[in-house]
Design a protein that fits this description.
By secondary structure, the chain is α/β, with parallel strands linked by helices. 35% of the residues lie in helices and 19% in strands. The chain has nine helices and nine strands. The two termini are 26 Å apart. Bound molecules: adenine.
């Protein structure tokens, strides 16, 4: 899989992809992640990438020209399955969207800033608009990092334990049950007996019950989902 990220702040993105699972996925050639600085495609003298909005009003808008130049350059080099714009007014990101995107070959992510991007880019180039939550970030970079991480960890071979992505919270519309590790007792706080019992059917039943209890308590909306 190849992910191209179009950004005004590539330095913001370097960190999340240079350690742990994201780094290993790239080292193992399971994913290629490329950053493109939109400012490199500005043609005006001062390398401006934004301008005042038509009709007046506070806040700058990211200009159409440099963004279209880089999108078309990349599209000329290969076919993209999706050109995704990260924006607070996009579709709310869910595990099912990540599952779907993890099956794609090439995707482009466009990070917005200021008041957003010229609407004509959205109309003519963007195939999906995604929000990572009902709050406004100062730019799309962190959202792009969240989306990329959520996709890449699903690629076959990325996680050591192949089953662990499947047992994540949200994969079956349930939150994960509590987990414990050694010691069995700390300051008098005990690990539930059943987990130490070695009785695997009972352990499985306990985990299912706890997952359901936690979901009912914290995210009852998940229980009404079908699919
Ligand atoms: N850019 C700014 N806020 C955002 C959000 N919540 N999701 C995606 N992109 C954003």
């Amino acid at each position: 899989m190849r992910i191209d990220i179009l950004t005004l702040l590539p330095e913001l993105l370097a960190g999340p992809f240079s350690a742990s699972i994201m780094k290993r996925a790239q080292d193992k050639k399971l994913v290629e992640i490329h950053f493109h600085n939109i400012r490199d495609y500005a043609t005006n003298k001062h390398k401006n990438v934004d301008d005042y909005q038509y009709g007046g009003g506070a806040g700058m808008v990211m200009s159409i020209e440099p963004i279209v130049t880089i999108i078309e350059k990349l599209q000329h080099e290969r076919t993209y399955d999706e050109v995704i714009y990260l924006t607070p007014d996009g579709v709310l990101l869910q595990q099912a969207i990540c599952n779907d995107l993890s099956l794609k070959g090439n995707i482009m992510l466009l990070c917005g800033h200021y008041k957003g991007i010229d609407e004509r880019i959205r109309e003519h180039f963007i195939t999906k608009e995604i929000s990572i939550g009902s709050y406004v970030l100062s730019g799309g970079e962190i959202a792009a990092a969240v989306l990329t991480d959520a996709i890449v960890r699903l690629l076959p071979g990325v996680l050591n334990d192949e089953t662990s992505a499947l047992t994540d919270s949200f994969q079956d519309h349930l939150l994960s049950p509590p987990v414990y590790t050694r010691p069995p007792e700390f300051r008098g706080w005990k690990v539930p007996d059943v987990l130490l019992s070695g009785n695997f059917p009972n352990i499985e039943k306990w985990r299912e019950d706890k997952a359901l209890e936690r979901t009912k308590d914290r995210r009852p909306d998940l229980l009404n989902k079908t699919q």
